[in-house]
Amino acid sequence: MSSIVIGAETVQVGDAVTVGDSGAGRAGVPSAAEMRLPVWFFGFEGVLAGAFDLLRAFPSAWPALVALAAVNLAVSLTMLRTRLKLAKLLWRGKGTRKVAFALVGLRLGSHLLLGALGTAVASTAGHVLFALVMGAVTVALLACVQRTALAALVAAGKATA
User: Fold this and answer.
1) How far is residue 3's CA from residue 11's CA, in Å, rounded to a whole number?
2) Residue 6, class by beta-carbon neighbours within 10 Å (0-12 exposed, 13-18 middle, 19+ buried)?
3) Are 138 and 103 in contact (CB under 8 A)?
4) In the Cβ-directed half-sphere of 156, how many Cα atoms lie within 13 Å?
5) How far, in Å, CA of 130 to CA of 23, rounded?
6) pLDDT tens digits for 5-27?
7) 51: left (phi over 0), alpha (psi -120 to 50) or beta
8) Residue-wise pLDDT tens digits, 40-79
9) How many CA atoms does the CB half-sphere of 124 hold within 13 Å?
């Protein structure tokens, strides 16, 4: 198993060879398609992003959310093992931190706005709607971050198109 060095980050990638600035070893460079995480995988994170509202709407759903988190971990460590390296890179990346801050800002900003308008999300339907919006925004933002990270890897010669 070899490494791809991206800035200060080192990413393990299957049987690929290390690609230095000289471009030596391009034959072993993984393709972006091989590294890409499927969008359905981000659905796990989408559900977990909406977990607060799901629990407000359905307080007894916490065992299902814990089970979903366990399934997420199991899928990550088994089926997507070869792509886990990209996931680690994404988790450590600035883009992912921006997504996390944007989601926190969206949650807090929307509740502050609703509070300023004299309303609040109190109904089950409102919480379910909030969970759906948070989930959809999470999936869309993570897919965008992945696309940007893969484009940067291709541009740097660390992956092939």
Assistant:
1) 5
2) middle
3) yes
4) 17
5) 47
6) 454 444 443 433 333 333 434 56
7) alpha
8) 888 888 998 899 899 999 999 999 999 999 998 888 788 7
9) 4
